Amino acid sequence: MKTKFERVxxxxxxxxxxxxxxxxxxxxxxxxxxxxxxxxxDNSTPKHIVEKLIETIKNGKTxxxxxxxxxxxxxxxxxxxxxxxFGVKLNFEDEVVVTLGSKEGLANLASAITSKGDIILVxxxxxxxxxxxxxxxxxxxxQIRMTEEELFLKNLVKSISKYKNKIKAIVINxxxxxxxxxxxxxxxxxxxxxxxxxxxxILSDIAYSEIYFNxxxxxxxxQVKDAKKIAxxxxxxxxxxxxxxxRIGFASGNKILISALARIKSYLDxxxxxxxxxxxxxxxxxxxxxxSHIRKVYKSRRDVLIESMKRVxxxxxxxxxxxxxxxxxxxxxLSKGSIYFSKILLKKASLAVSPGIGFGxxxxxxxxxxxxxxxxxxxxxxxxxxxxxSF
Length: 391
Prior knowledge:
Layout: H1 6-9, H2 15-28, E1 34-35, H3 47-57, H4 72-86, E2 96-99, H5 101-113, E3 119-124, H6 129-137, E4 140-145, H7 149-163, E5 167-173, H8 185-197, E6 201-205, E7 231-236, E8 249-253, H9 255-268, H10 274-285, H11 289-311, E9 324-328, H12 337-349, E10 351-352, E11 354-355, E12 366-370, H13 375-388
Parallel strand pairs: 1-10, 3-4, 3-5, 5-6, 6-7
Antiparallel strand pairs: 2-8, 7-8, 9-12, 11-12
Helix pairs in contact: 2-12, 3-10, 4-10, 5-6, 5-9, 7-8, 11-13
């Protein structure tokens, strides 16, 4: 019996598992580990969303199979959100699909559009599903170093010249996980111009579009003229509405890509549980005060993190968006890499973070810190470092 599976073998050992195992061992010893590793929101879903779920689930008719592309009311609510937030008009019939989180949507689209020999361009570092979703689908993944916008675009043009006509798509993600970078609309305009000229699809992940800390909110790629001719954008309700376990996201944009995703999903699932979708529509259609509150919570935690760590000698750049900080490994530990430094933080300071190498080889000089503990716990993490480590 063959026990080697080709596509599974393409996936390297999950580096975060090593830290998770160590974290579990430390907790078995009775240590109070402050977990700022996984980006898993710690606060509850807003009450009115939960109440809508409860109300809907009492109706037995909602317990049947749902719709793989998403119920009509939720697709319409998402279209209204895009119109309000970005000034972008979407057709709920053929330009939107409800996904089981943005992760599932991107992975299934990768499966739908990938042919043997296709090259997909993905930034490095990046969120793991961006490269590995396409590796699982059988694509050749080539990396572009995540840099400032102008250099990134120059590197894109170089890659296009290098790989000729074999590039099928590029994956982008702003506000970026893990680097927290944001871009202006001018970047998207130039990106669309380059990709349209070279017949390259753009797959944009904007899961953190509502977690920003400046007055000016991040733009959508679909705001660019002609973007819908070559692009799909993935969004999520997980962080924006404190709904990570509900698994609701969206793919929006190009009709051809949306049709391909809808078709493959029709073979794989019947969509999210209907009451969850109804509650998600309520989240989008109701007052967005809870979104503003969630944003303020993360901003306050960010400020406490940056200030507290600075006092103990760890200078971390101030993120303008997302629920993360992309923290440079201190010079003293830099040569040993992000996994080693993450283990040191866990063993000596009872602080769990994500090693940057888990997001790509160019991430190894950083660790990602998630803002998923309250301000008191963040301050405690800084005290633990002060009392047990030196930078």
